[in-house]
């Protein structure tokens, strides 16, 4: 029997919303449909303002954006279903990551804050919605991130090969998948992914991102500058650890050096190399037996970044598309899977990854109002790997 879920993801790159329609029948994640909704420029600007570490915003502005994003998440679900010619009653649940505006797992009273009101999503789609995944892990003394490694394990672990999954969004993270399934899976945020490069090119060229890393490639990498940035305590701290764009920001750059005494393109090249080398360093230190690296996330489209990763690592670097899932789809499919875990009363975190004291069921459930939704199977815990 077909078992449909929808996953919604809006990451730290702040570019838009991904929506994946997934069939989990036969315990395998089969993508049925995918939709992408770019954020209008006014929403991007508002979110960037909300996400600044020192942002001073009113509760009215925050609440309105929370509701507005809920409407956009609902809109993309309804568009996806219309294109798939599928009624809402066929969908067991939506898993909505929301959009992270602040992630602070290390303060005295830790929290991670995502917006995109799930009440609005459930009401306007009629579909039960699971959301707010990160805070239960934090309540269990975890980092609340990364959460996707549990899904990576379910679909990409292979009994004959040590693998490392590298997800490059605004922030980069790795999942270490040993070929021996009895060995622990680990994962953590390595540091900046696209975020510093995006901020720098927006400041200097008013572009949202550096397409193919073309601008970075015109500059010269300043290795002394990169070594200076690598002295940051985050890179040298042991996992479990997670971070966000509220930490790796333009003020983070300015605290280390006078940015305006360098050529802008040289800094872009150096920031690109910083992302590449901190990913490679993390793999070499924490996954030295890695035989293959699989890349997913928006960073897959930065050709120069991938070149730098391949030059600084001693194993093949490939796209997840060659192993069953397009790199742009992985995270949205993962949140469909996490919703499925929640509805089946199964944990969604890996405590070895987040540092939580226990594996816990993640997310809050917001009931929909459509009748006839399919029931999930009792053996929903494990998926067959893609390849």
Plain-language structure description:
By secondary structure, the chain is α/β, with parallel strands linked by helices. The protein has two domains: 4-144 and 329-366, ATPase, nucleotide binding domain (Nucleotidyltransferase, domain 5, 2-Layer Sandwich), CATH 3.30.420; 149-323, Nucleotidyltransferase, domain 5 (2-Layer Sandwich). Helix content is 36%, strand content 20%. It is built from 14 helices and twelve strands. It has helices at 41-51, 59-84, 118-125, 134-139, 149-156, 195-205, 214-218, 223-229, 233-236, 250-254, 264-286, 303-311, 330-343, 351-354, and strands spanning 4-10, 16-23, 30-38, 91-104, 111-115, 129-131, 163-168, 171-177, 186-192, 292-296, 317-319, 364-366. Strands 1, 2, 3, 4, 5, 6 and 12 form a seven-stranded mixed β-sheet that branches. A five-stranded mixed β-sheet has the order 9-8-7-10-11, sandwiched between helices. Helix 12 (303-311) links the parallel strand 10 (292-296) and strand 11. Helix 8 crosses helix 11 (264-286).
Walk me through the topology.
Layout: E1 4-10, E2 16-23, E3 30-38, H1 41-51, H2 59-84, E4 91-104, E5 111-115, H3 118-125, E6 129-131, H4 134-139, H5 149-156, E7 163-168, E8 171-177, E9 186-192, H6 195-205, H7 214-218, H8 223-229, H9 233-236, H10 250-254, H11 264-286, E10 292-296, H12 303-311, E11 317-319, H13 330-343, H14 351-354, E12 364-366
Parallel strand pairs: 1-4, 4-6, 7-10, 10-11
Antiparallel strand pairs: 1-2, 2-3, 4-5, 6-12, 7-8, 8-9
Helix pairs in contact: 2-3, 6-11, 8-11, 11-12
Order of helices and strands: EEEHHEEHEHHEEEHHHHHHEHEHHE
Average residue-wise pLDDT: 93
Distance between the termini: 22 Å
Tell me the Rg in angstroms: 20 Å
CATH fold-level name of the largest domain? Nucleotidyltransferase, domain 5
Number of domains: 2
CATH superfamily of the largest domain: ATPase, nucleotide binding domain
Low-confidence stretches: 372-381
């Amino acid at each position: 029997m077909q078992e449909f879920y929808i996953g919604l993801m809006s990451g730290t790159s702040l570019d838009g919303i991904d929506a994946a329609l997934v069939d989990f029948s036969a315990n395998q994640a089969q993508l049925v449909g995918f939709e992408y909704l770019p954020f209008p420029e006014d929403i991007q600007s508002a979110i960037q303002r909300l996400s600044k570490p020192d942002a001073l915003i009113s509760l009215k502005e925050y609440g309105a954006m929370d509701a507005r994003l809920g409407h956009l998440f609902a809109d993309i679900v309804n568009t996806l279903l219309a294109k798939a010619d599928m009624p809402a009653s066929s969908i067991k649940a939506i898993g909505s990551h929301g959009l992270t505006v602040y992630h602070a797992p290390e303060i005295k009273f830790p929290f991670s804050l995502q917006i995109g009101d799930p009440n609005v999503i459930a009401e306007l789609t009629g579909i039960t919605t699971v959301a707010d995944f990160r805070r239960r892990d934090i309540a269990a003394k975890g980092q609340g991130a990364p959460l996707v490694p549990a899904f990576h394990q379910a679909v990409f672990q292979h009994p004959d090969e040590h693998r490392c999954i590298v997800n490059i969004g605004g922030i980069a993270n790795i999942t270490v998948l040993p070929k021996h399934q009895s060995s622990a899976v680990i994962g953590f945020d390595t540091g900046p992914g696209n975020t510093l490069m995006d901020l720098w090119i927006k400041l200097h060229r008013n572009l949202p991102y550096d397409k193919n890393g073309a601008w970075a490639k015109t500059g010269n990498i300043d290795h002394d500058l990169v070594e200076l940035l690598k002295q940051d305590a985050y890179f040298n701290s042991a996992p479990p650890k997670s971070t966000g764009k509220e930490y790796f920001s333009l003020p983070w750059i300015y605290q280390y050096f006078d940015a305006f005494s360098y050529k802008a393109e040289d800094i872009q090249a150096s920031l690109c190399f910083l992302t590449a080398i901190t990913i490679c360093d993390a793999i070499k230190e924490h996954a030295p037996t890695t035989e293959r690296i699989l890349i997913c996330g928006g960073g897959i489209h930065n050709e120069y970044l991938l070149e730098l990763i391949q030059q600084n690592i001693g194993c093949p670097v490939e796209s997840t598309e060659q192993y069953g899932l397009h790199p742009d789809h992985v995270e949205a499919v993962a949140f469909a899977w996490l919703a499925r875990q929640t509805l089946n009363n199964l944990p969604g975190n890996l405590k070895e990854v987040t540092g939580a004291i226990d594996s816990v069921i993640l997310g809050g459930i917001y009931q929909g109002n459509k009748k006839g939704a399919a029931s999930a199977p009792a053996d929903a815990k494990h998926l067959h790997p893609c390849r």
